[in-house]
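Recall the central idea of this unit: under ordinary conditions, the amino acid sequence of a chain determines the structure it adopts. In this exercise we apply that idea directly, starting from the sequence alone.
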Amino acid sequence: MKERFRPITPVYWYGRLFILWSVIFLNVNVLGVTAEDVPEDTSIGTKCTLCADGTPVQPSFLETPVPFIEPSLGVGATCADWEADVAIAAHNETSGDCTIIRRVSTICGCTPPQDERSGCHLCADGQSISEDLLNKPVPFITGWYSGVVPTCQGWDLLLQGIYEDDSTQCMAQRVFSYYCGCSYFNFNVDLWILLSRISGSISLICSLTLIVHILRDRRKRSSLYHQIILGISSCDFMSSIFFILADIPAPTTPGGDESFCKAQGFFLQLGFAAMFFNASLTLYYMLTIAQGWNESRIRRVRVYLLAIPFALGLVLACAGIPAYVALGHVCWLPSIFITGLFGFTPLYSILIGVVPICVAIAAITLMQARIFYFVRQSEQKMLKWRFSRRKLDANGSGNTTMSMTERERKVFWQSALYVLSFYITWPVVLTSLLIKPDRYEDPLSVAYKVDSAASFLWPLQGFFTCMIYFRPRIMSLLSNCCDWLGSKMKGEPSKKLSPDTAKPGSSTSDLPIASEEGKGVDIYNENE
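Accordingly, the structure predicted from this sequence is:
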């Protein structure tokens, strides 16, 4: 009995994708980075003083500016203002607030308190911030200072007051310590910038080549398959430009303009549309191969396969504007473990970065599994048919059916390669958002390796798409070259390329193309 499948439309699959996205959102475990609480002691005792030994601030430090108290005491606050404020505040000497104040009071010449905790220093392994960088502004952590741009010295002192040296929060802060001259991070960031620019340049050239190749051919411009590939390449081309820019858009001056940084994050996030176009491409393969849709039926759902991916990418890009920050090598979403450093909730990175990637991976995997199941069933049926019709096959009958099965198999592998390129790129990006930045300064750590891989593979997706698209053409040329070399070695007359294989549009890279008449995919009929 002939196996029948229920017709499945793109609206059905996108609806299932939305439901899956909602389930992941409702069950997501929000992992935030919170400061360690210092226990409060409300018992009556000695009143808190700025310096732990009870001595007043030395006259030479009274006019020293203290930028990290400006949100509460106003712009231009000095050590004298801070000392007076502490004197009138209702802090007990044994309270947690007093302990934190005294840990950062060294900026006013006070002796640091001798407590059981070792404060977090911005530079680890005994390094210290160089004199010429102490007053360097750090604009990307203004969220901690109510909009006031702190300096490297203020940042270092604040960390000493609130975090322990071996805490996860301290490690997360040190991810960006290269900005204040901590040498062991310069190599990491410089390597990430180099990798992003190399792979971004390669992807830019490949994506542009593929865009021109499709746009110059009228037949390709009207084909839904090529329109989806064009959408993927356009997104890759756009994001490659901003990967090449790398750290250039990041603000470097006090209160510097962050609009360029936000723009870079916006267009990198808009590149997520390429991920959704990959889902549309897999859905296209499933409809034409497994469901047997022809070209006329495919045209009815063209708007869904093209508009929905771009719309989803645009919505995510706009929603993430408040969360795009300078990460050293690019401006984008930080890991969910360090969002607190920038003053916002991990939900931004989860809902804008983590959830869409998880949903796309799940949807593409399910659709590709459906294609695999169909092709495998077809091959098993063909093996039975070939056994029962062996005599007729010897006389030439049945070749058309065998040929169609071979074509379906080849198109399946073409679709599988597109999915493989997706798996190479996006799970690594997902991991970079979920990685915990413990021992980030160690080049052998998992976090360092993951971010290095993401810096190289994410911009390289345009290269993968281009190579897979032209793979059949490349294989055909290699086969012709091997035949020509074999003929030369044997002394036989060299075989000339046929007009069909020689002309520009004659490769199997233009496939699959749904047939106009009847069902199925006319896989290798692009020469007509």
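The beta strands are 325-326, 331-332.
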